[in-house]
Amino acid sequence: MGRLIDESDLEGTAAAQLHNADGNGQVLLVCEHAANRIPAVLDNLGLDEATRLSHIAWDPGALAVAQEISRVLDARLVASTVSRLVYDCNRPPEAPGAMPGRSEVFDIPGNRNLSDTEKAARVATVYEPFRTLLADTIASFPAPPVLVTIHSFTPVYQGKQRDVEIGILHDSDTRLADAMLDLAPKQTEMNTQRNDPYGPGDGVTHTLKLHALPNGLMNVMIEVRNDLIATADQQKSVGKMLAELIADALTLIANKKEAQCHA
Fold it and tell me: Of the candidates 2, 12, 61, 67, which has an alpha carbon nearest to the alpha carbon of residue 35?
């Protein structure tokens, strides 16, 4: 099984793409697990088709939801085009989950016993172009953007049913998450929780820690249970709701700041 990859193995499609490049909105969206593409040289990582289509390979529905938010907010969107099993762009190179040998209950044969050279090739081919595109996009904004990452999660994980429907996740900066959680009960009937089903302790806030926190950008990570965004209609509905929730939360924050200035 060939396991060394380079840019030519992506067959003309970059590892990361910028959608709505001319968007003028304040929000910059990120979808790290947008695709389940595995370069041919990796021989499907030894996985069957059902596994390659499952949640371990990507975040089903997340890109479509992000695209709807992008449409509503006129937001730019940075998305990966390569499966998270090849390289998880929401993990640093040193993290075990960046190129996992096992995901949930699934073994990943093509990720077993990777050499340092094989790992470095994936970092250079997938992670670095994604990281660079996101950093360059942030730098291109005339004013600091608001960073919002979009993910989906499986309703059953390791045999356990998850009741949470939308997770509002944050690291040390809670500003946007706090405002969204304050407004969520008025704007959606979905079970919306803080740092659930994942939180900072699970290592899922890498993008926020790398790109938002050092730059002082307001930020949040949104997780949507993927059975609620399985169809195009659901994706549009949830995307529109989340876009409105983000916009209203930013307005709430701005109004509070203005009130404090005049207090």
Answer: 61
2 part of a folded domain:
no
* Residue 71 belongs to domain with CATH number: 3.40.630.40
Residue 34 lies in a domain: yes
Measured CA to CA, the distance from residue 75 to residue 30 in angstroms comes to: 10
Q: What is the total count of domains within the chain?
A: 1
| Beta-bridge partner residues of 152 | 224
| Strand-pair category, 106-107 with 102-103 | antiparallel
- For residue range 83-108, list pLDDT tens digits in order: 999 999 999 999 999 999 988 778 99
Count, in order, helices (H) and strands (E) of the chain.
Answer: 7, 11
Are 162 and 225 within 8 A, CB to CB? yes
Indicate the pTM of the whole model.
0.96
